[in-house]
Amino acid sequence: MRRGLMAWNPEELPLDILRERLRRLQGAMAAAGHDAMILYTNFIRSAAVSYLTGFSPYWADGVVLVPREGEPVFATTLSKRVGQWIQSVKPIGEVVCSPTPGAVLGKHLAGNEAIRRVAILELDAFPSGLYDELAAALPNAEFVDGSEAFAAARSHLDSAERCLLARAKNIAQEALESLDESSAGDVGNAVGQVEKIARLQGAEEAYVAIAPDLESGRRFVRLSGNRRLGRIFAIRATVAYKGSWLRQTKTYAADEKARGRIEHADAWFEAFVSRIDVSRPLRDQIAAALADIRDAEIAGFIAEAPIGTRPLAALGATQTLENMPALVVTLGLNVGGTPWCGAALAGLFHGKAA
Amino acid sequence: MVDAAVIAAARRHHLAQAMADEDVDLLLVYGNAWQGDYLRYASDYGILEGEGIVIVGRDGQTTLFLDSPLEAERAQAETQTIAVCYAPDMLADVESVLEQAGNRKLASAPKRLIPHRLARRSKDLGVGDRTAMMDRLLMKKLECELAAIRAAGHLADEGYAVFRNAARAGRADYELVAEVEAFFRSRGVDDNFMIMGVGGKEVRGMAPPMGRKLRRGDMVTTELTPCVNGYYIQICRTLVVGEPSAEQRDAFAVYRDALEAGVAAVRPGVTAADIARAENEVFRTHGLGEYVTDAYTRVRGHGLGLFVDTKPHILETVNTKIEAGMTVIVHPNTYHPEVGYMVLGDALIVTDEGAEVLIKTPRELFAAPVN
User: Fold this and answer.
1) Contact B70 A220 (CB under 8 A)
2) Cys-Cys with A339: which of A81, A214, A242, A269 at CB 3.0–4.6 Å?
3) Is the pTM higher than 0.90?
4) How confident is the model at residue A190 (pLDDT cuts 50, 70, 90)?
5) A191 lies within 8 A of chain B by CB
6) Which domains are delineated in chain B?
7) Which CATH class is domain A159-345?
8) Where are the alpha helices (DSSP H) in A138-178?
9) Nearest CA-CA partner of B337 in B290, B293, B299
């Protein structure tokens, strides 16, 4: 569940910005011929509703109805007694608490005879219980996939999101840098310390994963407890701040020689992510940039971006980097025999190169 | 000593038996980090990001599809006996498996959350709903599951002690969460459900922290739910910053009596409604009947297990029979008109004799230092 700081701060996320996001989506809906759009949310698929309303459910789920004109309506399975809290952290639109949110929104739409074409973001993945509720209330409506229209509106990175991502980056960085490899102790202590620092700085969420011994394996696991750390290990902090998500990974080494190589790779990676060209395939860019670092081989990479309901969705090998509001790159290298892992926010895009 | 692999094997065996009893050859189970219990039961994997679908054959052959590459990497490291498949186009891949199932009898769970793409094929592929079958497995635990839950009880007590020690005037609510989470990670607790409330009469419930700083006289409520080997165990307690007032103490006595009445009502054969009624009668006796309605409180307790808030819900309208082997929390949490929202609750196992309470923290209204 989401259990970090959840509060709306109008200085960080001004109402004007939320209204502009809504206006952009309503424009994209009109262009696509959608009379209304339905956006699903739970704390795993929180990105779309969070972008539009500033709200992520800490538990349970819900749906937002975006009409072609006017304010959105949020219907949620969260109980009535937290309705007041939701309204205090969700500055835009009405809130209805109901065990059948699909039925509530369906009834709302059924009152308007002009509603014929209802778009659902990620229709294929939409929970069938909610779909059945909507379909029962709107027997004459056509339900279509609204992912394209949403993506068109979402590609824009505004000043608020830029600042929230910068804050998330600072939180992740400070949490990872607070850990000293020589006094990290065991796995549980290391993971706990990173998570604690991230949460103390106001992270809405902090998922901390660890590759406890990079010399024997690169897989990051969700480990805690008193297992020993290897000579070289890496920690990945996935941090959310007010709905903006990123990952940052740091590799740690106990001995000087390995640490030197790791610091070299860190500096190279920082420079690389700052100059990614969104018009070219990432694989080619990594391969070309490796010429700048001696004896380095790629062990794997992933590019992720906020797409639809997902705060961080992996991009396919052939998927373009263009029109992504932000990009997180995760990379593994072998540098002169030393394993290294990194992940970072790669520039702040605006539909094209930063 | 709890052996997670032994528990997973026992669950798989039990699931295979249930599938045989209900004539199911291939079971599709959906899960995410919110509603992860069905998936965890069938795959022994605790999903965190993205979504997953596990397909279980009656012969035990199990394939876990995950749409996040990082989750698939973790699942490959953390699971031993199942096949793990990174499936960026998960719904298409699973649909294809169902299409190739031939004349095998297919079923799925949980019904409400099955993705639309798969649900719309249910009729033509003959996929039946087996949510109720899974719910029964999740509610009534096996002996080895109960042993795991029993062994985890002390972590809820210790976690609450960390929370109490962290609470003092001037600290922000989210700082208390940070302390508790760091403690849990150091003790092998991978997840925790936790909400809280800070303040007085204006507080109507619990939610995630909002950045409020603790002040003298504030009541600080929390529902803390560490997850050990996949099983959640819960404690609810209230503390006051500084010495509790006479009104706070008097109010708390009602909650303590209600909890005791609820726990005393627990035994095999009663219904969830009987337990809720026992708790609520205490409030009604004190003229607080209005505050046990859904305007002020959600449930008077609920099941615990691989999900934080599993069936049965303890409500006067729920007639589910209580059976030995269930694990529940009894918590008469609600708003009190004189002092605000107050919580008190203990997790327990239903035994043949009644309730085996797993929480050792005293049922007290605690005081936290002002400085």
Assistant:
1) yes
2) A214
3) yes
4) very high
5) yes
6) 4-138 (3.40.350.10), 143-368 (3.90.230.10)
7) alpha beta
8) 147-154, 159-177
9) B290
